[in-house]
Design goal:
It is built from three helices and eight strands. The protein is of the alpha+beta class and 204 residues long. The chain has a domain of 139 residues: Immunoglobulin-like (Sandwich). The strands form two sheets. It has a four-stranded mixed sheet with strand order 1-8-7-5, with no helix packed on it. It has a four-stranded antiparallel sheet with strand order 2-3-4-6. A hairpin with a 5-residue loop joins strand 7 and strand 8.
């Protein structure tokens, strides 16, 4: 009888020891394991800044819209305009046309639209005009004077863009500049703190 009791006690002790070892292994695994977070990816692209020239102006090409948004990040324009064509030495059609003072004329065709009030005045503050142009010749020299009697008399007044554009308007017409070079850079110093640039002609 004593022998059976001893064997039974030994078996119970072995079972308890194995159970304890199993629990210890389980607890160790739980303590050393690290939760794995699911992989995530961003599908929202960061906005791309416009390409700017060394002068800080936004570079544009013919047919590409430019202008001022109603507010930053908005899809709506307070002013939207497009240079649809640039002609070097255009054929003037006015009976009062004459040669340019600087040697050459550049004719820009422009389409422009403005937002209605009050969005327009909030973003722009005042009527706009397309007479704030600067020309940089192909050698990098800024032209002193780009408007002349020749530039304003190349085409009839009905073909020229209006002198002033306000809220809720659409305008189509030309601007003619008097320049010394058949290639260079046109700069429109506009509104909202931005300026825009277009290349014209073929630089040497």
């Amino acid at each position: 009888m004593k022998k059976n009791t001893l064997i039974f006690a030994t078996l119970v002790s072995a079972v308890l020891t194995l159970s304890a070892c199993g629990d210890s292994s389980s607890e160790g695994t739980e303590l050393t394991s690290t939760p794995v977070e699911p992989a995530t990816s961003s599908t929202t692209a960061s906005p791309t800044d416009p390409v700017r020239s060394p002068r800080g102006n936004i570079i544009k090409t013919v047919g590409q819209p430019a202008g001022v948004r109603i507010q930053e990040g908005s899809d709506e324009w307070a002013l939207k305009f497009t240079v649809t064509d640039i002609q070097v030495d255009p054929v003037c059609t006015s009976v009062h046309s004459m040669p340019g003072d600087n040697g050459h004329l550049i004719a820009l065709s422009i389409e422009a639209t403005t937002a209605p009030e009050p969005q327009y005045s909030t973003a722009m503050g005042s009527p706009i005009s397309f007479d704030s142009w600067k020309v940089i010749a192909s050698n990098g020299t800024t032209v002193n004077t780009t408007f002349s009697q020749a530039s304003v008399s190349c085409f009839e007044g009905t073909e020229m863009i209006p002198n002033s554009i306000g809220a809720g308007e659409k305008a189509v017409g030309r601007v003619v500049l008097d320049v010394p070079d058949t290639a260079g850079t046109l700069v429109y110093m506009g509104y909202g703190g931005d300026g825009w640039e277009w290349e014209y002609g073929t630089k040497k």
